[in-house]
């Protein structure tokens, strides 16, 4: 497994809408394994393929608490089928927006259809942290960042900060 470099805001790749995974094969499973390794190394609890520069509809999640056994999950072509009217608020962060956190309100529970790493279809009910993490990562697949769910003023401040930092690093900006 390989730890892949993370794409950091304001890289325009993060705004790309990811393409469907056409077939679940060894290449896709290898990418999922690399993404899990990258996510654990960061450390994080979720990672979308676009965050490692691969705009495909693939994400990995592990919401096991510290001290619990790892519980990695792979979601290929995930689709939210329904969302509850009830809302919940979590303080979210993002590996592509390092060291920035904000409270985001999202549906408290969702139903998601996806393929697993063997290509088998599943429909799951998720609530709590798993629901929030799935929505955050599925947003990535649609070119949406968690900062798009906060006030325009705060979002613009974050984008300015990361744009300035990218210029200092000599990387491309939006």
UniProtKB/TrEMBL annotation:
The keyword Iron is assigned to this record: yes
Enzyme Commission (EC) number: 3.5.1.88
InterPro entries: Peptide_deformylase, Peptide_deformylase_sf
Highest taxon of source: Bacteria
Reactions mediated catalytically: N-terminal N-formyl-L-methionyl-[peptide] + H2O = N-terminal L-methionyl-[peptide] + formate
Keywords, sorted A to Z: Hydrolase, Iron, Metal-binding, Protein biosynthesis
Top EC class, one word: hydrolase
One GO biological process term: translation
GO molecular function list: metal ion binding; peptide deformylase activity
Binding site residues for Fe cation: 94, 136, 140
Cofactor binding summary note: Binds 1 Fe(2+) ion.
Cofactor(s) the protein requires to work: Fe(2+)
Active site: 137
Protein name, UniProt field: Peptide deformylase
The organism of origin for this protein: Xaviernesmea oryzae
